[in-house]
Amino acid sequence: MNLIHVIILAIIEGITEFLPVSSTGHMVIASSFMGIASDAFVKLFEVVIQLGAILSVIILYFKRFFKSFDFYFKLIVGVIPAVIVGVLFKKKINLLLESPLVVACSLLIGGIILLFVDEWFNKPAVKEEAEISYATALKVGLFQCLAVIPGVSRSAATIVGGMSQKLTRTAAAEFSFFLAVPTMLGATLKEIYDYHKEHEHMFNGEQIKFLIIGNIIAFIVAMLAIKTFITFLEKKGFKLFGYYRIIVGIVLIAMYYTGHLTA
Predict the structure, then answer these.
(1) How do residues 11-40 score in pLDDT, each as one tens digit?
(2) Quick one: 119 exposed, middle or buried, by C-beta within 10 A (0-12, 13-18, 19+)?
(3) Is the CB of residue 22 less than 8 Å from the CB of residue 110?
(4) Among the ranges given (81-90, 207-216, 225-234), the one the predictor scored with the smallest mean pLDDT
């Protein structure tokens, strides 16, 4: 892994983390193209730079993020399913992360679903996170578990989950952003612990530099992406993202079966 790889992956993370297109899936494909997908540090890097992206949520929504303990308890309830699934299926998840074909198929199927989401859930009643119940938070958390499959998109899964519980598009998207904070923080700490346990050492100087640069870039890009996404979502909905996923998924599947894309 070199500095160019760091910059490319961090930009991809910042743009895609909060969009319903799968940041992990895009980074898996990008790292496969660059020939670094199987490197242990690259896998760690792709998780750890999510910290930069989620920091942008805390900054952008600072007042709302620190206004009540009830809000935190809802996030804890929402993140519990993902914690359980992550602990139980860690090894299987890591194997999936090495498969561009899984990413491609997930992008395609998820794209088809996004074409119809606005029509399926067109009678929202919940406009703010204060109106979200603990039961709703748990149900959205269950949807989030689908994101362990690369290409599904944590953002897409939780937003669709929120809309299925009568949240508006904006409320569902923002709750998805908030839920990302404890989810990604936990995933990052677990990934660092597993890396240290397996390799019996922490990072060298160059790796620390890459992690710092990656997080800074992801933070800056994610700040811009969140603002743009919310504005677009309020006006246009999800269909464009659905078409994008379908096109990318079909192209990647074709590339895989013609030998132009490998694990």
Answers:
(1) 999 999 888 888 888 888 888 888 887 788
(2) exposed
(3) yes
(4) 81-90
Provide, for the chain, the percentages of residues in helix, strand and coil under a 3-state DSSP scheme, each rounded to the nearest 5.
80, 0, 20
Q: For the chain, which residues make up each domain, given as ranges?
A: 3-257
Identity of the amino acid at 210:
F
pTM of the predicted protein model:
0.84
Mind giving me the DSSP string for 180-191?
A: HHHHHHHHHHHH
Q: From CA 10, how far away is CA 16, in angstroms rounded?
A: 10
d(CA 79, CA 89): 16
- On whether the CB atoms of residues 94 and 150 are closer than 8 A, the answer is no
Cβ(186)–Cβ(143) below 8 Å: no
Rounded CA gap, 103 and 85, in Å? 19
Cβ atoms < 10 Å from Cβ of 214:
26
Residue for token pair 């895609």: 16
CA dihedral 126, 129, 133, 137 (to 10 degrees): 110
Give residue 178's identity as a one-letter amino acid code: F
Strand partners, 126: 167
